[in-house]
Structure formats: C-alpha cells, structure tokens
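FAQ: What does a ligand-bound record look like?

Like this one, built around S-adenosylmethionine:
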Amino acid sequence: MDLIDQLYSRCPVDQIRFDKETPFETLQEHLLKIKDINEYYIKKVLKKIIDLGLYEDDTDWIYDEYVTLLNVTEQDQYSKIDSIRYFFDSTDNNNDKLYVDIYEKPNLISASGTTGFRTWEASLFLCSYILANKQLFEGNNVLELGCGTGICSILLSKLNIINENYVTDGDSELVSNQLVKNFELNDILLKNREQKKIKLQRLWWNEDTIPSDIDIVIGADITFDSTLFDALCQCLLQCLQNCSMCLISATIRNQETIDSFISITKSLGMRIEEIERTTTLKHKKNLLAPIVIYKITK
Ligand SMILES: C[S@@+](CC[C@H](N)C(=O)[O-])C[C@H]1O[C@@H](n2cnc3c(N)ncnc32)[C@H](O)[C@@H]1O
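The answer part, i.e. the structure of the complex:
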C-alpha cells in the first residue's frame, strides 16, 4: 500500500511505511485533506515525520502545521466522526483500486445504538468472501440483514454485479442517517436510487416484512446476542421461503452463544454448514476471535 493509501486507511502511525516515491506536494495535499476530518491523526503523522527527520527541505511547513495542532488531544477526536478507507484486492484486470469509505468513530468498542459508527471484523471477512465468490452474487437480488455501516452492500454496489440490493437494519435512525451518508460518501446512492436498485430500509427481524424478490441473504456480526436468536432465526426461515441461501459471517466470541444459534437454526428445520473460517484479516492486525461464515439453507 502506498503512503497516501496508508493514511486514508488510518494505518497506525507506528506502522506507517514512508516511501521515497511520494512527492512532498502530494503528501501535503492529502495531509491537509485528512486534517479536516481527523486533526489528531495528522498531528501524530507530522510528529513521526519530524522524529524521523524526513522531508528536510520542507521542515518549516511541517513544524508550522504541527504547532497549530499541539493542543489537539486524543479525547477531542473521540467525539468526532472520522472516515476510514478499506482497501480490497481487486480481481479485475484494470488497475483501479477497490475501496470503500466508511464514517466511523475511532476506538469505539461497543455501545448500544452506535454500532453504525464501527465496522465489525465479521463484515470485512464477508467482504473478502464476496470478492472471492463474485459469481455467486452475479445478477441476483441481495438482502443484507443488520447492515450497520453497510460496508458489505456498498462493496457489492461498487462491484456492480448484483441486480437489486435491500440494505436493512433494525435501527431506523441508523438507516436514515449514517447508512445514507456512507452510501453518499462512496458516490453510489443517487445513481442507483434513480434506477431503484438500492433500497435502504428498516427491517427488524421477525417483525418487518421480508421482500419477496430476494435470491441471497447476507449478514455480518448479527449473532452476538443469544436473546435475539429466536427472532433472527425466524427471520432467516422466512427469508428462505423466497431465497436459496443465507450467508452469515459470525465472530466466535463465545462458543456457547454460537452453538445456541446453530441449534435454534436446526430446530427450525434449516441446514447450517460452516463454509469459511479465518483467524487473520488484512485490515485488522489483532483479531481477538475467529470468524466463521455459515451457509444456511432449507
Ligand atoms: C454488531 S452490529 C454489525 C453491523 C455490521 N453488519 C457489521 O458487521 O459491521 C449488529 C447490527 O445488527 C442490528 N440489529 C440488532 N438487533 C436487530 C434486530 N432485532 N433486527 C434488526 N437488526 C438488528 C444492529 O442495529 C446493528 O447494526
């Protein structure tokens, strides 16, 4: 990843690899752009440049910028919304980079009502699965359950391979606010809405109506709370009246919880099989728990 891409993906500053190819003017332009949304990150990047003694001809500008940010603290940044760029390996022959931008709150671990401001690891694994299995999705109508930031559906839109995309979450505030903004950030909403290809809507499991014209259901990190499993599994069962399979990416934080999900799924007569598993992700260095993709069918 080149230097600018590392900055947009908010690579931890101690891991940034500075290269000789990036001209200072280019770096400067992007530092200023990113500063508009994340001053604390740029403060840390400038400090690293100063510590390493890089860009000697431009130290005046670097020092001046750094001084303007001296009072900015990590806490200041916590209350602000950042935008993170996730890069994916493109399997196309053209050289265009494939990435999705997502509005996030840095360091948000978990808090009720705020999951829309954090991309969970299970969705990144599901994105890799989608990329590796594009043919499965081609020309199909896809429903995403509990989409959160919407990263999987945004990737599907960017790939331009599916027909209709129902992007849903039970949190209507998230759907009308953060989700719309994330689609807009990636410049895909307006164009697709005109063609009625993308529908962002609330879907509370086992309560709201399931669209009838769906082929595949996807969901990431929606198996974190066993009290939701009855509703979730009923919802999956309803989906399978219309579609061929549900692909659920699950972070195995607690084996008992996931066993309970599997057992409720089976008790409702559905088949469930593990089709992928990982303990590593390119986007997150320290993965605390394995992630599994389950294929659920009738
Ligand atoms: C841990 S987040 C995962 C978000 C996203 N899929 C990701 O992996 O980044 C779980 C999501 O499920 C949604 N959710 C929780 N309970 C739900 C329910 N009963 N019906 C629909 N969505 C629900 C939440 O609003 C939240 O966005």
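Follow-up question: can I read anything off the structure? Yes, for example: The chain has two domains: 3-77, 82-297.
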